[in-house]
TrEMBL record:
SUPFAM superfamilies: Growth factor receptor domain, Mannose 6-phosphate receptor domain. This is MRH domain-containing protein. Belongs to the ELAPOR family. It comes from Danionella cerebrum. Keywords: Cell membrane, Coiled coil, Disulfide bond, Glycoprotein, Membrane, Signal, Transmembrane, Transmembrane helix.
Amino acid sequence: MHCNGVYSRAHHFEQDFLDESNGIWEQGSLFAALFIGPLLPRDRKPTSSRRAKKLATSFVAKATELPSCKESDYHFEYTDCDVLGSRWRVAIPNKPETCTGLPDPIRGTKCTFTCKEGEFLDMRTQECQKCTSGTYSLGTGVAFDEWDSLPSGFVTQGINMNFGDTYTNCSNSTWIPKGDYIASNTDECTSTLSYAVSLKSAGSVSFQYFYPDNHMFFEFYVQNDQCQSTDSQRRWLRVSDSDWDHHYIELSSGNNVLYWRTTGFSLAEDNAKPVLLKNIAISGVSYTSECFHCKPGTYSDKPGAARCVPCAANSYSNKGATSCQPCAADKYSGVGAGSCVQRPPCKASDYFYTHTPCDSSGETQLMYKWIEPKICSESLEGAVQLPASGEMMNCPPCNPGFFSSNSSSCEPCPHGFISNGTECSECPAGTEPVVGFEYKWWNTLPSNMRSSVFSSEYSSTDRSTGWEVAGDYIYTTSSDQDTDYMMLTLSVPGYSVPHSLNEDDGRVGLSRITFVFETKCTAECKLFFMAGQSERNNLVVESWSGTTGKQSYSYLIKSNHTVSFTWAFQRAGVFTMNNENSSDVAKIFSVHLTNAVGGVASECRHCALTGSDSDSACVSCPPGHYMLSGTGLCQNCPSNTIIRPEQSIGKESCIPCGPNTYNNKDRSTCMSDCTLALDHKGETLYYDFSQLGNVTSFQSSPRFTSKGLQYFHHFNVALCGAENRALASCVENVTESKRDVKGYICQSTVVPSEVRGQSVVSSQPFSIGDVLIGVTTEGTFDEISSMDGNFPADSDLPDVIFYYRSRETTQACKKGRATTIRLRCDPSITVKNYISPPSMCSEGTCDGCSFHFLWSSQHACPLCSETNYKEIVSACIQGIQLFTGFCAFGSQRTTYVWQQPLSCIGGVSLPPQKITACITLDFWLKFGVSIGSVAAISRLEYREATRSLAKANEELENQQYRAEKDTRDIIAFLKRIDREKTARIFALEEQVKLEKVKSSEEKDKLRMPEELKTIKHFRQIKASLEADLIKIRENIAMADRSHQESLTRAECKFYMSRIHLEKEAEQKISQLSEEAHHEAVVQLGTVSQTVFRENIRLNEALNYQVKQAEELKRMYEVLAEKNGSLSHLKETNELMRKEADSQLKAKQHEISELTAKLASLEQALEVTSRESRKGREEMELHAALHLKQNCTELDNLEMLLAAREKELNHVKWLAQSIIDQRRELELFFHEALDHVRKQIKVKQQNLRQESMKAYHWRMNEAHAGRCEFPPIQTFLNAPHSTKDVQNDQEEDEKWNKQKNVDISDLSWKQKESLLNLLFAKLNGHKIRKQATPSGFTAPSSEMISSDAEFTQENHSLTFLTQMPMESMTYDPCSLPPLKST
C-alpha cells in the first residue's frame, strides 16, 4: 500500500513534467522538443505526424505573436538521469504561452554532483555558490524546522478503526502543525505522517521527538522501492527520558518513504498526551538549488551558513535576518523569539519567598525574589513592588538522621548512628538503625530532590523553580500558564531490607513512602503522585482534584526499579491565555521513605543476634518465630499462625489463619490445599476443589469509553493449591517495563488491537486478592460481605466462599481491596471458567474496592458418599430344581443406583450388584398342593423363618455398612492424628534447636577469656608451672569436645580428668612448697593467690558443667522415650495403611467386576434401544399416514369453506338489494303520507269554510223569513259542543259496512289511517286488532284512533332501513345451509 503511494506520487510528478513538456512543444521550441522527446516514454511522445506539422505551423504563427522570454519568465531544471549517469538542463517557463525563445538545453552536471553545507547549485552557471547572509543550506540535505503549516511533500491522514460493532471516524485524527513542532493525534485512532524522498546516494534522516505518554503507541519506519520496511524491533521508539530525544537512522539510495505513526488507547476521561516532532533533517539528495531563509527568531550573519543561530532572550528577528534586534524597555521575549511581547504589571504571583542557609548563630533570613526570568514591569500602573527582605528568623531543626555542624548546615549521621535532628548517637547492642529519609523541615531543598516546570505542551519553560521551601513545608510557585506542571522529583539509588525482616518474604515490601500534603484551589486543579524508574517514565499512582484538606498518603514499594518519585501540580487542564488561577497552591509538609540505600536513621530496631563471635550481627528470626520485646530472643508462634510481616516483635505479631486454612512452611501466609470438610444438616460433606485450583481466566462484558473505544476487564484467578503452585498473573504489555502483578486474583484492562503485532493491549494491572484469609459458608467474614442477595440459590447445598484481601491501598480504598469467590455446585456445568459477577454490578464491583464473583461448576459439588445412592432389590427369579421336581430356591439381585438429582462428584463408587438366595413362589404353590393338610401351619412357620432370615440379612448389611463407615472414620482419624503428631514433632524439633542455642550461649559464657589470659601470663612468669597449666588446658578442651560428641562419655572422661588434675596439683604443690617456698612467697605474692582462686573457680565451673550434662542426659532419655512412642505409632499407622491398601485392592477388584457387568448391561440396553427405535419408526410412519389423510380432509374443508363464502357473498348482495328496494318503498310511503295529511288539512279547511258559509247563508235567509232557522252549529271543535262541523266530518268519514271498499271511496283521513297501518305492518309492529281476512273493511274509530296515537308516539322511530349497519346483527351461523353447485 505504501509503495503504491510512492509510485502514485512519482506518476503525478511524471504527468506534471509531461504537461510542462507539452507546453514547451506548444510554444514552438524545437530544441526543447528534440531533447525532451527522447526522454519521454514511448506512449507519451507525439504519435502523429499531423500533430508535428500542426506544432510546426503553430510555432511560426505564435512566434510572431509572443514576445521574447526574459530570465524571469523561466527557470532551469534537470531531466532524469539516464543509464550513463548523465542528464540535461532544460528551461521551463513559469507560465505556459507567455513568451518564446527559451534557451536551448545543454548537458548538465553528473548525477553524483553535490554541494557542501552552506552552498547551493546555481542552475545558470551549474556551479556551487555560497548562501548569502540570512539564509542557510544543508548542501545534500533538506531540513524542516518551521511548522506553521504542513510543508510540501508531507502527507498526514487518520485511519478509521473498527472495534466489533462500533465504528470510529478518524478522518480528523491527523498530525497538526504547532509552529515550532508538529503534534500527533490524542484519540483512539491511528494517525500517520509520511514523507517521500528520492536519494541519489546513501543518506540519513534525523529528528527530535518528545514521547511522554505510555498510553500512546509511537513507531517510525522507512520503506524503500522494494517495499522493504524497517526491522519491527527497531521501529518502536522508547518513551522520552528527558524533554526531547534524538533519533537517527541511515537511508539507502533510491526512493524512500518515511512514516511516523501513532495510536492512542487511553481509557481515562482525559486524552493521551500527543507525540511531538521537530527539526527533521534528511541528507542524501543530489543537490539543492536554493538557500532557505532563517525562520523568525534566528539569524545568520555570515555567508555560507549551514544553520541559523537562535536569538538570545529579550531580542527578536524577522525571517531571513542577519542579526537580532533588542526589545524595547517595556517589552520582553524568550530565546528564539520572532517578536517581543508587552511586559505586564508585576503581581504578587510574580515573586516568591524563601530562606537563606542558616548562619553560625542559627538564624536565617526571609528573602523575596522575582521569578526568573523576570517578565513583568514594576513601573507600570497597578504593579506591585517586591517586599523588603532580610527579616531574621530562627532556623528550623535538622531533619531526623541529620545533625547540625557549626550551627550553619545539617550533615548526615555516620552509618550505624541515629539522630532526632540534634546530635548523633550509636545504636546499642542487639539493635540496628532504621535507615531511610525523613524530611519534615524545609530550610533548603534536599540534595536528592529536584524542582522543575513543564508547560502544557510538554516542552521546558524558562522557569526552573516549580516548588520552593518555606520552613515548615514546601509549596508550588506561580507558573506562566495554568496548564503548566509544577514538578518535584525525589530520587534514590535503591533499597535494602533490614536484617530483622526476612528478605525472602514475598509479603514484605522493599520500602514504603509516606507524605503529608494539602491543596487549596479555586478551580479544578490536580495533584499527581507518580513512581517509576525516572522522572519521564514515572507512572501515575494516585491523583487528587480540587481543594484537599491536610492528609497523609502511603505507598508500598515492591520493586528495586522504583527509584524515582514525582509530585506534579497543575492548576487547570484547559489552556487559556489568562492566568486566572495563579493563587492555587499545593503544599507538602513531610516525606518519609524507608529502607533507602544511603539513607539516615532516626531510631533503632531490636534484632536477633548471630552470637557466633564478638562481632555478632543482626539476623532475622527463623520462620514462624517472633522476637521477645526488649531482647534479641526469638520465640515460636503457636500452631496454624503466621507472622505479621511489618512487625515481628511481641506475641501479637502472630496472626491465626482463618477457617479451613493452614500456614505454609515459612509461616508467611495462610493457604488452602483445595480440600474441605463441612457439617451440613448432621452430615459431613467432603469437597475437593483441585480441578479449580489452576489459574483460570475470565473477563467482563465489553464496555466502551466516551469516545467509542471498546475494552474489557480481564481477571485471572488461582483459587487454591500447594505452596509452590503457579499464581495468577496480570501483565502490562504497553511499555518496555512489562510490569507483572501476581496474586490469588488480579485484574487488568484489555483493549482489542492489532497494533504492535499484539491481539490485545493489556494495561493497568493490579491485585484484588493476594492473601487468603478464610474459606467458609458464612456470608460475612472479617468485615467482608459476600452479597448473598445478588446470588440467589435454588439448591439445599451451601455455597463455599473464599475470602481474599489485597494490601495495596488507594485513595478510594483506604483499607485495600477485598474479593469473595462463591463456589456453587451445579452438575450441569462442565466448563471450568463459568464465573459471573453480581447482576447489579457487571464489572464484579460496585465501589471499586469490594469484588464478588459466583463460580458455578460440577467440581464445586461435594464428594459422593453412601448417602448419595440407594439400592433396588429385584424379584426372586431363576429357581433351582430339587429332587422332588419343585423349583425351591432362587436368586435375588440387589442393584445400587445414584439418587436423582445427583448433587455430588467423585468420591465413593457405586457398590457392585449383589445376588442373594431366596424362595420362589413356585415352590410354595407346589409345596402347598402336595401337603395341603399342614399347609397353613408350615406356611406360617416358614414365613416367620423367612422374616427372621431377612431381618438377620438386613442386620448383617447394616453391620457391614457401619464397619465400612467406621473404617473410613478411623482412617481419617489416624490421618488427623498423624498430622498432629507431625506438627508436634516439628514443634519438638524447634524446641530442641532452641535448647541447643541456649546451651551454646551458656557454653560461650564459660569460656572466660580474661581468666585464660591471666593463666597465660602466669605461665610466662613461672616456667615451672607452664607444663602443668598446658595439661589442664588440654584436659578442659578434651572434656569440652567429648561433651559435644556424647553426653555419657563426656561425664566419665570429665571425672577422670578431674581426679588426674587433682593428683598432679597436689604433687606439684607439695614439690613447690619444698623447693621454692621462700622464693614463691617473695616473688609470687598476689599472683599465687590469684592462681589459687582461679583454680577454685575452674572447679566450680566443672561442677556446673557436670550438672548441665546430667540434665541434658535426662532430657535425652525423655526424648528417646517420646521417639520410641512415636515410632510405635508410626508402625501402627503403617499397619493401618497396609490394611487400607488391601481393602483398596479388594475394592478395585469389585470395580472390575462391576465394569464387566456394566458392559453386559450396556449390550442389553443397546438391544432395548434398537427395539424402541424400530417401534418409534413404525409410529412415525403411522403418524405420517394419518397426517396425510388429515391434510386431504383439510383441503376439502377449505374448498367447501370457499364455496360457502361465495354463496354467503351472493346472499349478502341479495339482502342489500332488498334493503335498497325497501328503502325506496318507505320513501314512497312517507311522501304519500305527507300528501294525505296535506289534503286532509285542505279538505277540513275547505269544508269548515263551506259549512260556515252555508250556515251563515241559512241564518241570513231565516232572518229574512225565507226559511227556518238551522240548528245551532259550532266551527271551533269545542269539547262540549253537540253540533260541530268536525263531528259531522267524522261521522261522514266512518267506514261504511260494505264488504269491498275501493281506495277512491276513502276519505283523506281514512287514507292516512290506512298508510299508518301499512307502515306499522311493514316495520314489524304488532297490530292491536287484526283486520278481517276477506276483503278490505274500514277500520273502526277505535282502531283508527289507536293507530293515530301510535303514529304520533312513534313518529320519531327509525325504520329498519334507516338503522346504521353496525347495529344490524349478522350471524353467518344462523343462515340456512347452502348447497354448493
